[in-house]
Design goal:
By secondary structure, the chain is of the alpha+beta class. It is 41% helix and 12% strand. The protein is built from 17 helices and eleven strands. Helix 14 runs parallel beside helix 16. It is elongated.
Length: 358
């Protein structure tokens, strides 16, 4: 068995569903797309995206002597029944309903890198969304899939419910045919369904309008004009994946069970309960999950927005929770609680949930 075949076999043993290999080198097309995206300020407040632009375009800057990029993908699709969250809870993006993927896939990718070092004596380095690497571009270049109109990696075998990782190595591996062809065709389902118009054109997402950006990455107050668009999403958003025909037809659970540890309590959250948590309770319950990215302050802010968008005017429980939050020591929580109370005062029926038919 060749080294390339052994690498792929080992990656699958470690729980990756898809493995592709590309020759290391610059990605001029994708580097130019990144530069245009940054120049148009589509990264919103994520200043780190503008850092290390040169390194993002060429993995040899991250690993001197790098010859190959091993692109890895792991499915997190739990099945249709498990994916459905309760209608009376705030929605949580599917990837965040268990252990943090940085830890789970990071352990597996580092194990693969260590194995390559031991087998070849050559350096290798694992990446799981923590280094300036164009992950989707390398997955496309290695033939795993293509960057769809929803800006996610799409594959014909698993749809887009995938987490990505890479291993950079100085070992010279046989590259797979790539880049992968684009199979979105004339479909515009994701562009049409994006609730805030964040997909401004095929493959380009404007973070300034993205629900995931505002509920996860952004710190501080959410602009008032953005709050209603969050609807009942308390952490992230899956709309552009939920409507994708490739997911409807081809999404499948992982071949090898992994330690994502999907939790029933993360299928949906009670925003009133979240709002009432002190920091110790929040950390005790959600430590080790992606929710920690938004922090205690951000999740309470988001809970206020969800209540402002979805609670019925006569919901005394929501009013009481927001009333307490309107006197919170945190000025951001206070601001969003007052906004939500004002929304309840002025909202006619039906509520957002009535309009969703839930």
């Amino acid at each position: 068995m060749t080294l390339t075949a052994r690498v792929k076999e080992r990656a699958r043993e470690l729980g990756f569903d898809l493995v592709g290999i590309a020759e290391a080198g610059p990605l001029p097309r994708d580097g130019a797309r990144l530069a245009a995206w940054l120049a148009e300020d589509r990264h919103a407040g994520m200043a780190y995206m503008a850092q290390h632009k040169e390194k993002r375009a060429d993995p040899r800057a991250l690993l001197p002597g790098c010859k190959s990029v091993i692109a890895l993908a792991a499915s997190y699709w739990p099945g249709e029944e498990e994916a459905q969250g309760p209608a009376d809870r705030a929605r949580v993006a599917l990837y965040a309903r268990g252990r943090d993927y940085h830890k789970v896939l990071g352990d597996a990718a580092r194990a693969l890198a260590t194995w390559i070092i031991e087998e070849t004596g050559l350096p290798a380095r694992a990446c799981v969304d923590t280094l300036p690497v164009l992950e989707r571009a390398w997955a496309e270049t290695s033939g795993l899939g293509w960057i769809g109109k929803n800006a996610n990696l799409l594959t014909r075998s698993h749809g887009s419910w995938l987490m990505l990782a890479e291993v950079l190595t100085a070992a010279e591996l046989a590259p797979d045919p790539g880049p992968h062809a684009d199979f979105c065709g004339s479909c515009t389902a994701c562009l049409d369904a994006c609730p805030t118009g964040a997909l401004t054109e095929p493959g380009f997402l404007d973070a300034n309008a993205c629900i995931s950006y505002w509920t996860i990455e952004h710190r501080g107050p959410i602009p008032e004009e953005r709050r209603a668009g969050l609807a009942d999403w308390i952490f992230g958003c899956d709309v552009c994946q939920e409507v994708c025909p490739w997911n409807a037809s081809f999404a499948q659970p992982p071949a090898t069970p992994r330690a994502f540890g999907a939790r029933a309590d993360l299928k949906g959250l009670d925003p009133i309960e979240v709002l009432a948590m002190d920091e110790a309770t929040f950390r005790g319950r959600y430590s080790g999950t992606p929710l920690m990215r938004a922090k205690w302050e951000g999740m309470r802010r988001n809970a206020c927005v969800v209540l402002g968008n979805t609670a019925s005017p006569g919901d005394s429980r929501a009013r009481e929770a927001l009333g307490r939050a309107s006197e919170d020591p945190d000025p951001v929580v206070r601001d969003h609680a007052v906004w939500a109370l004002n929304r309840l005062e002025n909202r006619p029926f039906p509520t957002l949930r009535d309009m969703r038919g839930t």
